[in-house]
Amino acid sequence: MINYGRQSIDKDDVKAVVDTLNSDLLTQGPKIAEFESLLADYCGAKYAVVLSNGTAALHLANIAIGVQRKTKVLTSPISFVATSNSVIYSGGSPVFCDIDEKTFNISPSEIKKIVAMNPDVSGIIPVHLGGLIADMESISRIANENGMWVIEDACHALGGQWTDSEGVERKVGDCSFSDLTIFSFHPVKHITTGEGGAITTNNEKLFNKIIELRSHGITRDAGSMRENHGGWYYEMQSLGYNYRITDFQAALGVSQLAKSDKWSERRLELVCRYDHAFKDVSEISSQSHPSNQKPCYHLYIVWAMRRKGLYEFLREKQIYTQVHYIPIHLQPYYQDEFGYKTGDYPHAEEYYEHALSLPLFPTMTNDDQNHVITAVKGFYSNA
After folding, report:
1. Average pLDDT of every residue of the chain
2. Distance, CA of 252 to chain centre
3. Is the pTM of the predicted complex or chain greater than 0.90?
4. How far is Cα 134 from Cα 126, in angstroms, rounded to an integer?
5. What are the start-end ranges of the H helices in 148-225?
6. Are residues 301 and 104 in contact, defined by beta-carbon separation less than 8 angstroms?
């Protein structure tokens, strides 16, 4: 059985978790700060906050940046529902924007059109679908011209790199063209903490706000409190949440992060092998790969003719693919609550009719991948 993705856990990861389980603190201990420091350094950002999951990270990013009742936020309809749901959790309204037909990411030219029609849009949440990095330079330019903020949904893109128009090398998460960047550490992502997420930023004010929101809106900082009754005293200064991650999860994150670059290289190697294998198969094509990027692929997404037939054929051979994603504006909740309908975002809808994610994970062997490639080619050659 070959799944579209899976976690990679070794004896070092197990030891890291067990060592922390045998320590004095299972939560709110030193492993949290260690993981945050390593993650910030890895991404090239000043600050990182680790959280209970990627959705929690999206939620707190929205609140910290100022999303509230009637705030309009622009994002892609091709993402997991958590991206736009986080806007709603914060009181805002998501405004979708169609995707680019080749990269499957949010289209900057479409963003310009939407912003022109909706001058009251406050911010943009671009999604790095499958690990392919959205055109952050163009998106940032549009945002700056219109007084908007940017939150990168990089839940698929930890470890990705790209070069800007001035030849400067950038890392996903360095927030060079955004206010905040979001990551997920779900088991099928680049690294895992079981469940987990993170926010990186270079803005100290946003960092401090997220730290406060992560733990019930409570502070024990004497310099911030209105009163101080003694060593036991704390103040709840905002309506926060319990979005904390445990120390044993953070220990797993520390261990996994040390292997992230090696796994990124393997993912890219597998993507290149797929591309080479399918270059003469006219019925499928992959995401366009901009020359200025070195993505860390979370997914290998193909545009497949007769997608449903291919999906079922592969399942018969115990190759379990997946579709990422059903356009969010077609979900019943979004149609009922916001009036979205079929036909609103034609590129996203056409993408959905053809998209399929083939298996991709760093411990995937060449033999496993050859089995997938042979099956895909067999489907099209025998059809």
Report:
1. 97
2. 19
3. yes
4. 7
5. 204-214
6. yes
* Under 8 Å between Cβ of 83 and 61: no
3-state secondary structure 222-276: CCCCCCCCCCCCCEECCCCCECCCEHHHHHHHHHHHCCHHHHHHHHHHHHHHHHH
Please identify, in words, the CATH class of the domain defined by 2-257. alpha beta
Residue 153 near residue 85 (C-beta atoms within 8 A):
no
Hey, where are the domains in the chain?
Answer: 2-257, 260-382
Phi first, then psi, for residue 88 (nearest 5°) are -65, -40
Give the pLDDT mean for 327-334.
Answer: 98
Looking at domain 260-382, its CATH architecture is: Alpha-Beta Complex (3.90)
pLDDT tens readout for residues 84-139? 999 999 999 999 999 999 999 999 999 999 999 999 999 999 999 999 999 999 99
**Residue given tokens 């952050």 in the structure block:** 136
Tokens of 39: 């993650």
- Mapped onto helix, strand or coil, the DSSP state of residue 89 is helix
Structure tokens at 327: 């356009």
Spatial separation of the C-alpha atoms in residues 345 and 144, rounded to whole Å = 25
Cis peptide leading into residue 325 (ω within 30°): yes
Q: How many CB atoms lie within 10 A of CB 367?
A: 7
Closest by CA to 79, choosing from 271, 332, 352, is 352
Q: What is the per-residue DSSP string for 261-321?
A: HHHHHHHHHHHHHHHHHHTT-TTEEE----TTEE---S-EEEEETTHHHHHHHHHHTTEE-
Q: What whole-number distance in Å separates Cα of residue 124 and Cα of residue 292?
A: 22
Give me 272's structure tokens: 């290149």
